[in-house]
Amino acid sequence: MQKFALKVTRTQNFPEWYQSVVRDADMAELSPVRGCMVIKPWGYGIWELLQRQLDDRIKVFGFENCYFPLFIPMSFIAKEAEHVEGFAKEMAVVTHHRLRNIDGKLELDPDARLGDPLIVRPTSETIIGDSFQRWIQSYRDLPLRINQWANVVRWEMRTRLFLRTAEFLWQEGHSAHADEAEARESTRDALELYRAFAENVLAIPVVAGEKPEHERFPGADNTYSIEAMMQDGKALQAGTAHYLGTNFATAQNIKFQNKDGGDSYCHTSSWGLSTRMIGGIIMTHGDDDGLRCPPAVAPRQVVIVPILRDKPEDAAVLTFCDEILRGLRSETCFGMPVRAFVDKKLTRSADKHWNWVKRGAPIICEIGPRDAAGHVVSFMRRDKLRDGGAMTSETVSLAEFIAAVPSLLVDIQQALFDEAKTRLHTNIRTDIDSFEALKSYFGEASDDGDDSSEAKGWVRCSWSKPTGDDLTKIVDLLKKLKLTIRNAPLDQPASFKRCLFTGQAGVEEIIVARAY
Amino acid sequence: MQKFALKVTRTQNFPEWYQSVVRDADMAELSPVRGCMVIKPWGYGIWELLQRQLDDRIKVFGFENCYFPLFIPMSFIAKEAEHVEGFAKEMAVVTHHRLRNIDGKLELDPDARLGDPLIVRPTSETIIGDSFQRWIQSYRDLPLRINQWANVVRWEMRTRLFLRTAEFLWQEGHSAHADEAEARESTRDALELYRAFAENVLAIPVVAGEKPEHERFPGADNTYSIEAMMQDGKALQAGTAHYLGTNFATAQNIKFQNKDGGDSYCHTSSWGLSTRMIGGIIMTHGDDDGLRCPPAVAPRQVVIVPILRDKPEDAAVLTFCDEILRGLRSETCFGMPVRAFVDKKLTRSADKHWNWVKRGAPIICEIGPRDAAGHVVSFMRRDKLRDGGAMTSETVSLAEFIAAVPSLLVDIQQALFDEAKTRLHTNIRTDIDSFEALKSYFGEASDDGDDSSEAKGWVRCSWSKPTGDDLTKIVDLLKKLKLTIRNAPLDQPASFKRCLFTGQAGVEEIIVARAY
Predict the structure, then answer these.
(1) Fewer CB atoms inside 10 A, N or C side of chain A?
(2) What distance in Å separates the CA atoms of residue A326 and residue A240, rounded to the nearest whole number?
(3) Which site among A33, A48, A174, A175 would you substitute to test the B interface, given the most B Cβ atoms closer than 10 Å to its Cβ?
(4) Range A188-221 burial, b when 16+ CB lie within 10 A, else e
(5) Model confidence, pTM
(6) What's the rounded Cα separation, in Å, for the pair A320 and A364?
(7) How many CB atoms are closer than 10 A to CB A72?
(8) Cβ contact (<8 Å) for B120 and A94?
(9) pLDDT, mean of residues B78-102
(10) What is the ipTM of this complex?
């Protein structure tokens, strides 16, 4: 039996495998603060690279970065609650602004109670809307397009690193427009930006589409998402974009003088993508040896491990490692300098090697005295670690290696994407057209939802797009199978099968799946 | 009398002038959340450029970025309070994690009260120390060097945009070392990093030195700062670095197995620089027409304003503006592409021009039909807007302009630095050697401290470095004059005058000044 770097494999227990990648790749850990995580350098390094590349795209899209307060007055939330049904009430509330020390014991100072408690932002529509309302006077001020990188807090009862934590990091784009058509177009453009970013930078193929009405963001007219398929077949909602109509504008009085001199409410949109995406990277690209990090977001793309033996040859090995590093210094890939690193830590070479395998550095070199003497580089591609079952490495001259690195990284990025894309397409069933067939395909769900049963993938089927109570009935039936409607993909066929749920004429195709 | 772009000049009323730069340059505004600001695109753009360049330097210094929780359990703070005297108790406290809706009214849910309240981080020594304590086992894990970019909250009674706000953005570096010497060296290196960054990137000359004992960060053995002189002569503490000894390590049990097999406490350091620095940029480089933004952190370095008249020639003007933009696209300055922008907003050209003057774009071009026809560029340097009192602009060929931009930007950066450096050096008095002379030089302070009286600069004098009660007496005397001891500069002479306060032999030179 093959031994892998992780103690548990994906097929043995997918949720445990996930936790062990997060831990063994040194990406994050639970903190002593309930539901909050510490993002460690390797995890945060991926986030920084994701952030920089997404930010560049957001700026090209015409959005400017701002920063709005962490706190939202409870009175703002109350106003929103009057206009918006069904919004979540699990949020962190600040009620005091001072502690006092009584006989060496620290406690809340009752004199420092806030009149209007402050909510730690779960999202920023209301506080940003307050600025929009002041900034927008005339149609000349529109469209207004801003973006914010921030931490947000949503009290979650059951947390999982990156996927669901009380505090997480994200970007939230917000725009206001003079007319509906432009606002709708901007929302769809945001969705397309996410799709292209996920596929081209994170190598995660996604299905972009519209959420069904019961899954809309509270207050949105339409909610769109990109959905990615994890290796256990479950869907991960990896980014959402909302067309908010004039709902928030009405609640917050975001008006402008139109070209005819009258007053109109703005049409607004918002869209967000978070550190949850790092969970998506892990569950898309990880294998039983750990993470395989897409080169475009790998904090170290080429890691050089010197094999040291406390012998005089060590010096030559280290010198040669630095020579490789110097050679790579002027190479670029994905529009940035190649990120190379020599691991000189005082631990065993084998430990270092496996550490980088588990973290998923795309190219790992092991350099011993013979490599140094021969001026050759032995390296392995992390994405093809065990081609044909055996550990594979290649040895080439230094010059060849340096020259090959940029295209190797591009190859690895493409290979990861292709693998995930094939998996996505081969795991969407389109031949299931009755609820009974759906039920028998997915089988009964286990109680904790964390079962490691066989991966099932998604079902793409037609439906009659019922609303209200008719929809609720279907949602409840699906819920019993732990299934949800992910979205209605943007690419729809010209004609439809009968509705899988009602038997009526189909009007739309949807994705049904288990999900994170 | 000369008319300026701002309604109030620096000499008329410096604090009001400051507020008007922040407002008219569209940098930030107060939010409806007490003491919290909204940082607008121009202000945030400066922060992003500052952040990226400081971050690059921090990484070269060997620190890796992480992210730690926003919240700190009150029990952690209580533990710190036992070890650390005099720490601030003004902090935002989260006591509930849910709201409930009773008869349409939103209120705290009493069932969702937290057992251990959570403090919104005012700084992260305790929560990071908790991770350090888990991450550090042996001397092989040392030094441990991490940095965090984050928002922090300190409840301030009197706030001023950028300078003192309840929530602000900063970076905090934290390190743990096996021995004192290395920890001290790292602390001083951080200080030097700040000095070089302030001077080379922000064009702000500073005096780096050690804070007197009563100004130390609670729990620090030594606190160092860089101090900058604002145009009203006041000092701005622009960055601090602390050597924490083994104080925090002892409180939090941050131990390691040393080379001899025994247990030792780590020596730790921390250092931070915040959005307050943006206030420093304004008060160092602003003039009566608004901000003059140092090119290295200017979100737009070259702004092209087309002069449009709703006539057929407009098309040629816009085409030529885009041609200038294209020409600049391949130019770089300070290691980054030149940031150029054509302002096509639908407002009057003169308004646009003055808007960019107030924001302090380093180079502003106004392009009319004659410029377009002659393929020439009329531009002005924002730093020399009124050379000799008159508005000055220059006209050169397109090719000349493109070629000149990178060196012009470098010149402007240098000119701003030189001007500030001359001001700093000519406004440090070294000839005041009695307390009476000090008193008569500074005069009585006005009550609100926001007087617009003549700028006074700093006094550099010798003292005998008293401690305890003797120091307290001096601090109280200075306080009556609204004076503070800023720091003891790192560059000390070989011999000293008598102590200005005690008449005893001097042992150190210090900076005495009014301060923000």
Answers:
(1) N
(2) 42
(3) A33
(4) bbbbbbbbebbbbbbbbbbbbbbbbbebbbbbbb
(5) 0.96
(6) 15
(7) 26
(8) yes
(9) 85
(10) 0.95
Beta-strand relationship, B144-153 and B64-65: parallel
Scan for tokens 């952030």, then name that residue.
A51
Residue B452 is predicted with a pLDDT of: 44
For residue B272, the number of C-alpha atoms closer than 13 Å in the C-beta half-sphere is: 19
Name the closest residue on chain A to residue B347, using Cα atoms.
A140
The predicted-structure confidence for A23-55, as pLDDT tens digits, reads as follows 999 999 999 998 999 999 999 999 999 999 999
Q: What is the pLDDT of residue A437?
A: 95
| A94 contacts B97? CB cut-off 8 A | no
Least Cα distance to A339 among A266, A409, A419 occurs for A409
Q: Which residues from B are below 8 Å from A97, CB to CB? A: 90-93, 155
The residue of chain A with its CA nearest to that of B299 is: A64
Strand A144-153 relative to strand A64-65, pairing: parallel
The structure tokens listed for B444 are 């009585």
- Dihedral angle sign, alpha carbons of residues B78, B82, B83, B87: positive
- Pairing type for strands A376-381 and A394-397 reads antiparallel
Nearest CB among A40, A69, A105 relative to B167 is that of A69
Token output for A3 = 């031994």
Pair A171, A148: CB distance under 8 Å: yes
What the block records as the tokens of A147 is 């973006």
Mean pLDDT is lowest, of A426-430, A445-449, B102-106, for A445-449
Which pLDDT value is given to residue B2?
64
C-beta separation of A277 from A297 below 8 A: no
Asked whether the beta carbons of residue A44 and residue B67 sit closer than 8 angstroms, the reply is: yes
pLDDT above 50 for A452: no
Q: Which residues of B touch A92 (CB under 8 A)?
A: 71, 94, 96-97, 118
3 state DSSP class of A267: strand
Chain B residues in contact with A101 (beta carbon < 8 A): 81, 89
Instruction: Quote the radius of gyration of chain B (alpha carbons, Å).
Output: 26
- For the stretch A389-438, pLDDT in tens is 778 889 999 999 999 999 999 999 999 999 999 999 999 999 998 999 99
Looking at the predicted structure, is the pLDDT value of residue A444 above 70? Answer: no
Identify which of B71, B89, B104 has the shortest CB distance to residue A98: B89
pLDDT at A215 > cutoff 80: yes
HSE-CB for A183 with a 13 A CA cutoff:
26
Contacts of A70 in chain B (CB under 8 A): 36, 70, 120, 151, 153, 167
Give the nearest partner residue to B69 out of A36, A48, A97, using CB atoms. A36
Measured between CA atoms, the residue of chain A closest to residue B43 is: A66
Between CA A42 and CA A275 the distance in angstroms is: 13
Number of residues assigned to chain B: 516
What size, in residues, is chain A? 516
Cβ(A314)–Cβ(A196) below 8 Å = no
Cβ neighbours of A32 in B, within 8 Å: 73, 76, 127, 130
- pLDDT band of A104, cuts 50, 70, 90: confident
Q: Express each pLDDT in A339-391 by its tens digit.
A: 999 999 888 999 999 999 999 999 999 999 999 999 999 999 999 998 877 78
Contact A342, A322 (CB under 8 A): yes
> Does B239 score more than 60 pLDDT?
yes
pLDDT given for residue B483 in this prediction: 96
Tokens 């917050």, residue?
A252
Query: Per the CB < 8 Å rule, is B67 touching A101?
Result: no
**Rounded to whole angstroms, what are the CA distances from B250 to B127, B216, B256?**
14, 19, 12
